[in-house]
Amino acid sequence: MEMSIRWTVPFEAESARWPAVSPICTDVEVKMSAGPDPPGVPPLGSGDSVQQQVLASFPLCQLTEEDLTKNPLFCKLLAALSHHLDRTGLTVSLKEELEKAEQELRTQKLAWLQSESLYRLLQEMVQDHYIRRHHNSTSPENSKFYETMEQCLLVAQCVRQLDPSSTTSQDQPLLMGLSAKHVLDLMPPEQDVRRMKQRLLAELEVHLKKKCFSILSYYQPDWEHESEGLKNVKLSLLPETLESDSKKAEALREKGLESATLLQRQTQAYLSELMGCLQILQSLILDYRLKAQKELDKKKVEYLEAKCQIVIRKIRSEMLHLQLDTYTVDKISAHWKIREKLDAELKAIRAEKQSAESMLSSFEVLGQEFEALVQEYTQLRLEIDNKSWALREFSQHSH
What we know:
Layout: H1 11-15, H2 50-57, H3 65-70, H4 72-81, H5 92-135, H6 140-162, H7 180-184, H8 190-219, H9 228-326, H10 329-364, H11 368-398
């Protein structure tokens, strides 16, 4: 089975973000190292059984030794496949292609990281200059140097946006009719660029040194107050220290994977034993306890029924006592008087409602003429109210 893998990586494209200033940094190199790929769990020894070797070769499969024992042909097939597949299920040839593609990806990522790191360092230098200029006055030479560098960075970024031919295979329309040549005309004078290049390496070295000391202080805060010479020595040993710590972490990770595999096997064995114990316990319960449990449950149900009846009667008794204490003879007679009064009022209100409904029905017979009279009456009432309010206000203000 053949598979072709195509990687579309934007790292080379991003390295062209500032092509106009790339000539000023030809002597600057940022060294980085990509870490090794994490290895898998080491295979079992030759003393293990075939089932254990198969389980170790395919850790992602949810299989148990019992499954492989019940299916010897399937176990034999997996043992044969283990010589052609890795632990993730990839073939040897596909694994080689994948490793080659990952190596190419790391190379392109390293190139992108170099250019991107340098670009961000230059931006930080410009920002630090503006911060220092805000707090303290700077010399005209320093201002000219940073202004020239900032202008080069801006022109390079605009060129990158206007000329995407280095990152895409398609022709794109010009932005506002501008091209890269138009923007390159905004570069500083050649003499200023030459002076900036001559000073850039020294300034960049100072800034990089400061960043490295910050990383060193972050990794080991105790070294922050050491002398500069001692910091330089420890900084030269920092890559080896980081690599050693990385190897220790990798060893711990491998040990954790081994422990996880061992724990999985022990868990499977424990669960199988536990299921056997549960089956034995279930047989004991069915044979010896369920016979007596039926009578016990019957007696318990009778007891709960009797107790429930007693509780119900006690609640009923308490409710009756509460009613006797609440409603005395005097209170009941008062309630009857209140009820008679409320009934009389309700009867009067119903009669009033009936008369109003009959009057309303007689008005509805008049039809549209009555509605016009009502609207006219309503308008007159509003005008009377408005004029009365105006008269009262006028009377108050006249006094």
